[in-house]
Amino acid sequence: MRLFAGLLFSCFALLAQPYTLLLKGGHVIDPKNGLDVVRDVAISGGKIAVVAANIPASQAGKTIDVTGLYVTPGLVDIHAHVFHTTGIPGGWAGDESIAPDTLSFRTGVTTMVDAGSAGWRNFEALRQTVIDRVQTRILAFINIAGLGMVSDATEQGDFDPAAVARIAKKHRDVVVGVKSAHYQLPDWKSVDNAIEAGKLAGIPVMVDFGYFLKARPYWQLVSEKLRPGDISTHMFRGPVPWLDENGKVYEYLRQARARGVKFDLGHGGSSLVLRNAVPAIRQGFYPDSISTDLHGLSMNQPLQDMPTTISKMMAAGMPLQSAIKASTETPAAMIGRPELGNLSVGSAGDVSVWQVMKGDFGFADASGGSIRGKERLQIEMTLRAGQIVWNYNGLGTVPFEQLPKNYGVREGIDFVVAPKQ
Q1: Residue 266 and residue 79 in contact, taking contact as beta carbons nearer than 8 Å
Q2: What's the distance, Cα to Cα, between the start and end of the chain in Å?
Q3: What is the rounded CA–CA span in Å between residue 283 and residue 330?
Q4: Which of 89-93, 140-144, 160-164, 405-409 has the lowest mean pLDDT?
Q5: DSSP code of residue 289
Q6: How far apart are CA 30 and CA 148, in angstroms?
Q7: How far apart are CA 34 and CA 312, in angstroms?
Q8: Half-sphere exposure of 320 (CA within 13 A, CB side)
Q9: Which residues contact 128 (CB under 8 A, 6 or more apart)?
Q10: DSSP string for 45-84
C-alpha cells in the first residue's frame, strides 16, 4: 500500500509539472508570431509547449529566471562551412572548415547550413562524417562542381545538374539548395548549371559570384539569371555596384528584390564592406538573411561570429527586431524550412537567450573599415531540442554551498580518504 501511494504521488507530481523547462520573465522576440514582449517560454519533450505570460513555476521541473534578457528562436546561419573531415589541406572543404559544435551553441546558432563545401561527388562523405554525427542541426547546399570547394580549381568545371538533383532528392531531409561559387571564367556555365540543377530538384540556388568580370556583370545575375527565391550571397562585397552618383541605392537592386531574389549577407573573411552596407541599410535595404560565411580563417578576423555580425548590422542602422528576423524566421523560409526559426507551439525547442550590452563598441569590416555602435549582443544561454547546450553565466544552477556535501559523486563510488599522518 505504501509503495502504491508513493507511485500515485509521483504520478500526480508529474501531471502537476507538464513542462520540463521554463524560461521565465524574458523579453521574447519571435518575428514569425509577432511577439516583441515579456513572456515565459515553456518546453516539454524537447519542443516549445507554450509561450505565455505568468506561467507558474510549479508547472515546470526546472525554472530559469531570464528577467532582463532577450529570448529568441535559435539562430539559423545559412552560410557556413563545416566539411572539416576531408583530410584535404586548404579550401573550405578541408582545413578551413570548422567542427560545428565547437562554435555554434556558444553563439546562439542551432542550425548551420553548409554552403557548398561538398559537391555531388563527395556530398555523402559530408553527410556521414559531419551531418549525422553532431548536435548542431546541419543542412546543406550542394556545390554544382563535383568535388565542391576542395580548391578554386575544382569549382571551374565538372558540372552535372542531373547528378546534383539525384543526390539532392536522395538526401532531401538535409539538402536545401545548390551552390555556385568562385567561378573565374567569363561565361555563365557555373550559374546556369546550378540553376538547372535547382529546377530539376525543386530547390533554390545560392550564388557566390566570386570573380567580377565585365563579360558577366553582377546586375545581370540578379536581374536576369536568378529566379524568385534564389539567393545572392556576399551582398555587400566591395565590387558589388550599390550606390549611384547621388549616393542612392541602384534601382536594379530594388527591382531584383521586388521580383523575389534574396540577398544574403555572408560576411566571411573578405565579403563585408561598410561603404556598401551602411548606406544601403540606412536607406532601408536590409539583408534578407544575416549569415557568417564561417570558416577557420574568417572566425578569427572581423567576422568573429553571429552575435558580432548581428551587432554590426545594428550599428549600421538595422533595428534589433529586424536583425533577429533576418537571423531566424527569414533564413528558415529561404531554405524551405519554415518550421525552424520560430517559437511556435510544437516547434523544436531551439532557443537563444541574449544580453544586449550597452556601451561604446567598435565593429570592423573585411577591408579595414570600422563603425561604432551603442549595443552589442552576448549569448547567455542556448537550448537545442530543449536541452541546455551553452550557459555563459550558469543560469539556473545552485550555489554549491546549498548542495549536499557529496554532490557530484556518482552512485557506487566512495570517497577515498587519505590516511592520517
Answers
A1: yes
A2: 52
A3: 20
A4: 89-93
A5: B
A6: 35
A7: 24
A8: 17
A9: none
A10: TTEEEEEES---GGGEEEEEE-TTSEEEEPEEEEEE---T
Mean pLDDT of the chain: 93
For domain 74-343, which architecture applies?
Answer: Alpha-Beta Barrel (3.20)
Q: Are the beta carbons of 315 and 361 closer than 8 angstroms?
A: yes
Query: Among 319, 298, 300, which Cα is nearest to 373's?
Result: 319
CA distance 260 to 247: 24
Question: What is the pLDDT averaged over residues 289-297?
Answer: 93
Strands 351-364, 370-384: pairing kind: antiparallel
Count CB-CB contacts under 10 A for residue 245.
5
Conformational region of residue 418, where left means phi above 0, alpha means psi within -120 to 50, and beta covers everything else = beta
CB 41 within 8 A of CB 21: no
Look up residue 419 and give its DSSP letter. Answer: P
Is residue 12 over pLDDT 60?
A: no
pLDDT at 4 over 50: no
DSSP at 240: S
What is the distance between the alpha carbons of residues 282 and 265, in angstroms, rounded to a whole number? 15
22-41 confidence digits (pLDDT tens): 999 999 999 999 999 999 99
Which amino acid appears at position 54 of this protein? N
What residue ranges do the domains of the chain occupy? 74-343
8 Å CB contact between 357 and 72: no
The model carries a pTM of 0.93
Look at the chain and count its residues: 421
**In b/e form, how buried is each residue of 141-168, taking b as 16+ CB within 10 angstroms?**
bbbbbbbbbbbbebbeebbbbebbbebb
Helix axes 189-201, 161-170, angle to 10 degrees: 40
